[in-house]
Structure to design on (130 residues):
């Protein structure tokens, strides 16, 4: 059984829909691993706008210059769209690839704080599968 101490520490959980000002409508959460590595999750309506992933990577690098950042996107579900989680990978040319993952896979990595800090408007009940 995995204890709370084995998960990274949640160090940032901005109020939903406030996040990155330039993007507008982004909820950002950041976890710190003891190894000096961060995992960040962005969500909200602004997270899927053109250039949002690239901007998120750039801003996180500026705010945490001595950390390696693993970035994920959570698209909250509602009555129109299914929720999903995705791993975001930045290429050398700055382009970003989105690979959908099952939310529970990320929750196993980050612990209960992932679902505990989800957007209140998310109607997916934590699953967030592809």
């Amino acid at each position: 059984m995995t204890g709370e101490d084995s998960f990274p520490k949640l160090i940032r959980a901005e109020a939903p829909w406030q996040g990155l000002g330039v993007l507008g409508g982004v909820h950002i959460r950041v976890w710190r691993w003891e190894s000096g590595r961060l995992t960040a999750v962005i969500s909200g309506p602004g997270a899927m706008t053109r250039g949002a992933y690239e901007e998120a990577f750039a801003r996180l690098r500026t705010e945490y210059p001595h950390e390696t950042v693993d970035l994920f996107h959570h698209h909250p579900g509602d009555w129109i769209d299914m929720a999903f989680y995705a791993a975001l990978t930045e290429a050398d040319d700055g382009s970003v690839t989105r690979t959908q993952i099952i939310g529970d896979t990320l929750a196993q990595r980050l612990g209960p704080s992932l679902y505990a800090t989800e957007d209140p408007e998310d109607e997916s009940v934590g699953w967030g599968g592809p």
Remarks:
- The chain is about 20% helix and 30% strand.
- Helices lie at 52-63, 103-110, 113-116.
- The radius of gyration is 14 Å.
